[in-house]
Amino acid sequence: MNGGADDAVLRAIRTRRVVRALTSAPVTRADLETVLDSARYAPHAGNRRLHRYVAVTRPALLRALRMVSPGMLQQPTAAVVVCIDWAQVRGYGFATTNPGPYIDVGTAAATMLLAAHGIGLASGPVTSFSGAAVATLLGLPDPVRPELIVCLGHPAAEQPPPMRRRHGTGWADIVQWDRG
Ligand SMILES: Cc1cc2nc3c(=O)[nH]c(=O)nc-3n(C[C@H](O)[C@H](O)[C@H](O)COP(=O)(O)O)c2cc1C
């Protein structure tokens, strides 16, 4: 299986990697807006927009975010904090047990990571952070909770070796065809 080698979308999907070694060069406003805009093209449950995106560019605030995020191994020069607005979720009539809003965080994040890759930015998702501390740092109102941070920056020339794919799992190892 190596179909679509010439297809730009498939090539982007296959070449995107989390990049954790970044330069100190800032992300331009235009590039950050391109990444933010891409999120609205992601599929969302009920086609509702129950999320809020906080774009962080101030170096002091980025440093503070890093201090409350053990999983933020990179030093990003910009970040997008994807939040669920639980007031909107309730207003739409979703039960709080409905996984849709969380799944939407993933679709939006994946789309932003690919958009960043497409314009030559380095990116990486982070969920290992203190939600309460991030909410306080960003001054979020109570029903708006941070769920995932997309770190952004420019890739450094030297990169650590990529994490090994565990057990060499291929797509066929994790796919069931029809009824098992
Ligand atoms: C939901 C989610 C949470 C993640 N949280 C972190 C994190 O806190 N810190 C981190 O360095 N990477 C995090 N990652 C990135 C994964 O470690 C990374 O995607 C995985 O190692 C595969 O690497 P690749 O995307 O370059 O193929 C997260 C990824 C996802 C999807």
TrEMBL record:
InterPro entries per record: Nitroreductase (IPR029479), Nitroreductase-like (IPR000415)
Record bears the keyword Oxidoreductase: yes
Residues in Nitroreductase domain copies: 13-66, 78-154
Sorted UniProt keywords: Oxidoreductase
Family: Belongs to the nitroreductase family.
Name by which UniProt lists this protein: Nitroreductase domain-containing protein
Organism per entry: Streptomyces rameus
